[in-house]
Amino acid sequence: MSTLANAMDVLKLIARLRRDITVTDVVTELGLPKSSASRTLSMMAGYGFLDRDAVTRAYRPGGVIMEASYHFRASRNAASLVEEALDALVRETGYTGYINVLDGADTLVIQMRAGAGALQIYTPPGSRAPAYSSAMGRALLARLGDDEVGGLLGARLDQGRGHAPKTRKDLFARLAVIRDTGWALSRGEYVTNVAGISSAVLDPATRQAYAFGIALPAEELSDPLVERFGATVRDAASSVGKRVGDPYWLAFGASVP
């Protein structure tokens, strides 16, 4: 493996562990020989990519990385990156795309991009729906704990249709699947005959979560299409999440091949 590839893996390791790292961490987590791990860390420190603590001898991001990170955050934010990811999803899939946020127990549309597909029903910006009754809403709810979700929604789940969860137990089971897979699916549960595939990103700087994804005619759904677009939406969210330091996506990327 090249020195540059090793350096990239070291920076990803720091992001994943969210702490200073040692030679032992690099050997254990990345599987590098001790000599290679030590040489990589020393070279990165020498070029300013890492700093070394004088007491603990552990490494942390150095001045070069911090300056680049500051420039990135000053010029880009989670909202703009989500918009770019949505535009790319709409171009790739041909389906209409949305960005939603939570507003109390509802999900609120804040952006829409019309696709080239045959979807005839649109939910324009400003539209609201019960969060539990859509892929967008459940992607956002999955970023909360079950206790918080229960307190937010109350006891009644009576505004959904079709395959929407009817009980808290059903909802919590679906949220657990979303946390494991990274994406959510709905099948005409609030807007009849419209399906949705969504994922969510949390901006750690503002604590604002954004769900984004695609809407398509429910009759077009098939298992291969669901798996394909589920992975597409998940990967788009993962890319944005890692760039903004979303802890969920940093950990998810470490555990999913």
From TrEMBL:
Keywords: DNA-binding, Transcription, Transcription regulation. It comes from Acidovorax cavernicola. One of its GO terms (molecular function) is DNA binding. Pfam families: HTH_IclR, IclR_C. GO terms for biological process: negative regulation of DNA-templated transcription. Residues 1-63 form the HTH iclR-type domain. InterPro entries: GAF-like_dom_sf, HTH_MetabolicPath_Reg, Tscrpt_reg_IclR_C, Tscrpt_reg_IclR_N, WH-like_DNA-bd_sf, WH_DNA-bd_sf. This is IclR family transcriptional regulator. Residues 64-246 form the IclR-ED domain.
